[in-house]
Each structure stands twice: as C-alpha cells, then as structure tokens.
Q: What sequence folds into this?
C-alpha cells in the first residue's frame, strides 16, 4: 500500500497476485467504474493504483486482511510527506548562548531532527479533520508512537519509543521549546573528579621553574596528596593542605597520568602555562595573536629599515660584517644599504645617506613614512625622526618584536632566493631543512666550545658580493605576479611611485646624516669644505652670525663618488646659509673658455653685491665734542674747557696714519667692483666699466692672498 496524492492506494499486483480478485474481474469492475483507478499503468515500471476507500466492502475487507496495519501505513506516509527540517531549531542548537554549552555537530543535527519530527506530530494533533481521517474518533498516541519509532532509521531521531514517554516529551516540547531536547549530560560536572582548586594546583606544579614534564607533574601531585611533598603559595606563603584534596570517601584524590595530561594539554591551560614558562619574546612570537596587514599600493609610501649580520665571516676577525638595509614595502626593493664592522650609529647614518643619494639621483620625493627600530634610532626620536620634521610619518617598532618590521621578512627573502643560490655557507646551523643547514668544524680545546667555519672571506669580497646580490634581488620578478605580471621589483618601484610625495628637504638630510666639518667664513664671502671654496649665497648672511665669531659647522651631502653636492652651514645649531659652488676660472686669458668667463662674471657679481651692501649700509660720520658749559660752571667745577691732553674736544682727529676718521677707503685692489653689468644692481653700468678696466687696475687673486694668510 502507498499514498498517491492524498489517497491511500493498493496496486494492481496486490489485488490480482494477492488473490483478492482475478484479472478479468479487475478489468470488468474497472470498466464499470466499481472503484477508482487513481493512476493507470502507463510508462515503464509503473503499475496501476486503486484507491482503497473506493473498493467495494468485500474487497476492502480482503485488503485489510492483507495489510492489517493500513492505518499505520497511512499515518507513516502522512508524516513522511509533512516532515520539514526546522532551520530555527538548527540555529538554536548551534548557538552557545541558547544552550549554555558548545554542542558537537552531530548533536546539533540530532536535536534538529528530533524537533522537526515533533513539529510534524504536533501539526497533526492540531488538525482535527486530519486526525479524524487518520485515527477515527480521537488521536491515537499508540499509533503515533509506533509510526515515529518506525521512522527512527529513516531520519535518525532519538525520540522515546514508549508511548507514555513519547507523549510526555511532546508535552514538554510544547511547554519548554527546543531546550528540553538538550541532554542534561552536557555541562553536568557530577562525574568530575578534578575540581577548579585541584586543576589550579596541577597547573601551578607544571609551572615550576625547571619546567617539569607531564609525567613529573603527575608524580609530584600524587606525592603531595599522599603527604610526601609540601606545596605552598610563594605569594601568600600559604601551605596547601593534602586533606583538602580527597574524594568523597576521604581517600587521597590520586590522579592518573592520562588525566594530568588531559588537563595540561587543554588549549586554555596550554596558553596559561606558556605565559609563565616562555620568555616574553617567545610567547609573543609563538602564542599571542598578531595583526594581519597588506602592502601599500604606491612605492615610497613606507620604507622599512633593519640590520642584519651577513651570513659568512671575515678572515681577519672571524666575525660577520654588519649590514643595514632600507626596503620599499610595496616593491620590496633595497633602496638603501650600508656596511660596518660594528653595529653602531655610523651604520645607520650611512644607510640613510645611501637612500638619499638614490633619491637625489633619480629625482624622487621624500618617503611618506619610515619604519625603524628603537635600538639605534631612538637618539633621533625628537629631532630627525620626529614625525613631520623629515618624514610625515615615523613608526618606531617595539623592541625585540621582529615580526612587526616588514624588513625582517625581506631579509629572509633575499637570503633564501638570491644569496643561497649564489654562495656557499648560506643558512642556519639549526635549520630543519638539510638544504638550508650549515655545518661547522668542531675544535677540541680546553673550553670545548670552539667551532670554525669551513671557509672565511675578505671584507672587500663579502661587500662586493652582497652589492651584486642586492642588484640581482632588485631586478628579479616581483613575488606578486598576479598583480604585477611580468614586472621586476625595480619596475614596480619606479612605475608606482606615490604621486603625493613632498620634495626632499636636503638641509635636514645634511644636518643629521650628511658629512660634517668645522670651518669658518673667510673674507665675508666663502668657506672651505673638502678643499673647495663654497661662496655664501649673499653677503647679508653675515648678519646671522654671533658677534666676533666667524666659525661655523658645515654639513654636506655627497654623491656616489663621495664628492660634496650641497653644503649648509650652521652656527649654534641654527641654519645660517646654503653655500654655492661658484667655481674657479683660469687665470690665463689665452686658455679661458666660456665656462671660465661665466665663473669670472659670477664672482664679480658676488664682489659687486658686497660693495653695494657696504654702501647701502654705510655709516654716517658724526662729530664729537664736550657738552657746552658756561664760564661760571667751569670755574665752579675747577676744570679747564679742554680735555686732559690739552686738546679742545670737537676738533677732528686723524688716525695713526694721519688719515681723518670717516673718510671712505678703497679696497685692497684700489677699485670697488659692483654689479658686473647685472641689471638687478643700480650701479650696473659702473660695474661694466670696472670690468673693462680690469687689465689696467688688475685684481688681487684669492689664492695668492690665501697663501699670504697661511704664511
């Protein structure tokens, strides 16, 4: 029997083959319409279905004899057709906030099926007309319980098979809802032997300074509960009492090694144990959560600095050279580098110089942010590396937090991808991968701790090879080929430069990471730096100098050949001026070039501007005389009208050479050169005439004067 539509049906085979009627009888009754054929035998594998309720009473009784549980079958089919998975129940059991405990996935599915089956039963109970059709006069709990039990294998529910227990569960479900389906075994600690106090004691023993193994922890705990070992709290000094750790019979609560292992290896307890046993750096790198980042879109948005020891050692000192790298985070290119035998400030300064030389050569802007370490960079925290002074953003990474610096990962990438391929002895002695593991030769001596590498190298060789490795690393394909397909790291650096970068402030660069030399301003016009004379930008600069002090500090940037490119002078940490390299011209007219004549003109402009400055600020002459007094005042004072030397005050006095003070004096050349024809100067025509008269008057050569000064 089966349902077809809403009708309980019996098949043609059941009627004929079951002996209820003959085939001819079936055809005749079907032709006369004595019963209803709800489905004809059309199609492969289909058989005719006849509604049981449409059969004559004689044949209906025979069908009931053949299928004594027809009502149950009808009920079973109804439940199958009306069963629906309760998604709200699934969400309820999946939420720990509803159940109070994290249920296993199989239990969530089991309780969801139970709720879905109960929903179907309650739906039938609430439909009076359907109950009348299914059970006759009233709801038959025995039939329903039997049907639900028959569906156990189909749906996998765990509802009670007993009629009374099933009926009780339905009533409880209607009253309490989903929560009544959760077993009381979850969250129940009635069978627990280890309470909270015992668990904390086990954890305390596991955190002893000698880091005992789990088996030792079990041994120490059992010795304590048996009175063979004293345990106390170091903070309060309280002694733990073994009598507090007994079972319900008063016997010592002895625990097995398995139980101890389970508690010590619990993820929650593992974190707490590691927090006490590990060092701060190890705990931070292995246990603590960490942030997740992605690289910026543009080059020079962030530069990351970090130091490292080159893998191979020197012949002379058996030590590793120290290197300092600056990486662009977006392209991963090495954009600055420096080397030293020691990890010191000079190493950092040289790395910054290398970065600024590259920026100056390529014409790039100043990086928007730098990421630096505390150890060597903290001395510039309030000056050069203060946010907004040189770089808009500066990040000082936490000490010993290598995972924070992006350069740490790039050091490893360079070492594994390029250095390991090009050289011998690249790796670590403790590496798990045998290809990356290095070996040393054990030397037997009195300390028994001496190891030597198989080969040592010169300083020049190691530095030259590392520079080649940097060049190769920068010009290999960028690792993110999905985004930068076919592009090298250097191409990504050049083609994705941040368009919002500000120009490089060379004065600040020179002040903090440039070369430095003490010098002085000579003849109110120039300073000597690196054996070259650098002119003041204008004579008004001398107004910034302290009284009677021409000494200044010169800071300058250099190119890749070490030649000075820009020079700034400071006095008392205050910027005075940026010097200019005017150059020198050939003294022989026969050999002078256009460049020599341009330099000569530039120098004459400087000299002419100096003369104009002196004339514009010339001192007006004054006369000095004694205050006028009446004869009566002089007589009463008993003083002559003249001074002590017998000279009457008010007469002009000459200097030691007989020159009257206040007369203008010519310069050493006998001429005052001005303007050199520059239209910016009011005396331009006079300067042009002065240049024409140079051969007649001649000029005093600076180098000759300097020689005289040296003598």
A:
């Amino acid at each position: 029997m089966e349902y077809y539509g809403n009708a309980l049906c019996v098949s043609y085979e059941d009627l004929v083959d079951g002996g209820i009627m003959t085939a001819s009888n079936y055809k005749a009754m079907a032709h006369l319409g004595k019963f209803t054929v709800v489905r004809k035998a059309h199609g492969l594998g289909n058989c005719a279905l006849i509604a049981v309720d449409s059969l004559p009473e004689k044949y209906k009784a025979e069908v009931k004899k053949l299928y004594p549980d027809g009502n149950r079958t009808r009920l079973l089919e109804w439940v199958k057709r009306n069963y629906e998975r309760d998604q709200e129940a699934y969400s309820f059991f999946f939420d720990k906030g509803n159940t109070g405990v994290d249920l296993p996935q199989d239990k969530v599915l089991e309780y969801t099926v139970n709720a879905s089956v109960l929903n179907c039963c309650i739906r039938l109970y609430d439909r009076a007309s359907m109950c009348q059709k299914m059970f006759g006069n009233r709801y038959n709990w025995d039939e329903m319980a039997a049907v639900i039990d028959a569906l156990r294998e189909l749906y996998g529910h765990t509802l009670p098979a007993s009629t009374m227990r099933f009926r009780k569960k339905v009533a409880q479900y209607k009253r309490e809802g989903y929560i009544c389906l959760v077993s009381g075994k979850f969250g129940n600690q009635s069978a627990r032997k280890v309470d909270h106090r015992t668990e904390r004691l086990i954890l305390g023993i596991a955190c002893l300074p000698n880091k005992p193994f789990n088996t030792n922890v079990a041994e120490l705990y059992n010795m304590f509960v048996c009175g063979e070992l004293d345990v106390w709290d170091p903070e309060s000094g309280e002694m733990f009492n073994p009598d507090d750790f007994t079972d319900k019979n008063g016997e010592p609560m002895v625990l097995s090694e398995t139980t101890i292992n389970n508690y010590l290896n619990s993820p929650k307890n593992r974190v707490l144990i590691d927090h006490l046993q590990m060092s701060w750096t190890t705990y931070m790198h292995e246990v603590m959560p960490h942030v997740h980042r992605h690289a910026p879109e543009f080059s020079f948005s962030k530069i990351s600095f970090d130091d490292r020891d080159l893998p191979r050692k020197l012949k002379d000192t058996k030590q590793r050279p120290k290197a300092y790298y600056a990486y662009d985070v977006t392209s991963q290119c090495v954009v600055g580098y420096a080397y030293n035998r020691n990890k010191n400030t000079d190493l950092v300064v040289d790395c910054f110089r290398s970065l600024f030389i590259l920026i100056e050569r390529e014409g790039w802007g100043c990086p928007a942010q730098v990421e630096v370490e505390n150890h060597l960079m903290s001395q510039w925290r309030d000056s050069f590396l203060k946010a907004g002074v040189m770089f808009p953003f500066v990040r000082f990474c936490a000490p010993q937090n290598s995972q924070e610096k992006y350069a740490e990962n790039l050091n490893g990438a360079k070492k594994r991808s390029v250095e390991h391929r090009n050289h011998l002895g690249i790796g670590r002695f403790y590496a798990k991968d045998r290809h990356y593991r290095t070996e040393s030769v054990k030397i037997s001596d009195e300390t028994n701790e001496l190891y030597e590498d198989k080969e040592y190298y010169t300083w020049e060789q190691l530095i030259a090879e590392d520079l080649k490795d940097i060049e190769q690393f920068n010009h290999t394909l960028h690792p993110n080929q999905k985004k930068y397909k076919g592009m090298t790291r250097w191409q990504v650096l050049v083609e994705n430069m941040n368009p919002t970068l500000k120009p490089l402030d060379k004065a600040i660069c020179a002040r903090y990471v440039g070369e430095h030399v003490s010098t002085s301003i000579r003849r109110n016009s120039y300073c000597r730096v690196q054996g070259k004379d650098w002119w003041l930008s204008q004579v008004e600069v001398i107004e910034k100098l302290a009284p009677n002090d021409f000494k200044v500090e010169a800071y300058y940037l250099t190119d890749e050949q070490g030649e000075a490119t820009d020079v700034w002078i400071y006095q008392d940490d205050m910027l005075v001026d940026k010097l200019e390299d005017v150059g020198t011209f050939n003294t022989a007219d026969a050999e002078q070039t256009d460049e020599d004549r341009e330099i000569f003109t530039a120098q004459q402009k400087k000299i002419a501007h100096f003369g104009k400055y002196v004339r514009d600020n010339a001192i007006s002459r004054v006369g000095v005389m004694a205050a006028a007094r009446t004869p009566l005042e002089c007589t009463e004072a008993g003083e002559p009208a003249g001074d002590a030397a017998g000279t009457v005050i008010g007469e002009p006095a000459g200097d030691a050479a007989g020159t009257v003070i206040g007369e203008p004096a010519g310069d050493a050349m006998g001429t005052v050169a001005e303007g050199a024809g520059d239209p910016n100067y009011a005396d331009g025509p006079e300067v042009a005439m002065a240049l024409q008269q140079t051969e007649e008057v001649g000029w005093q050569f600076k180098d000759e004067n300097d020689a005289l000064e040296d003598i």
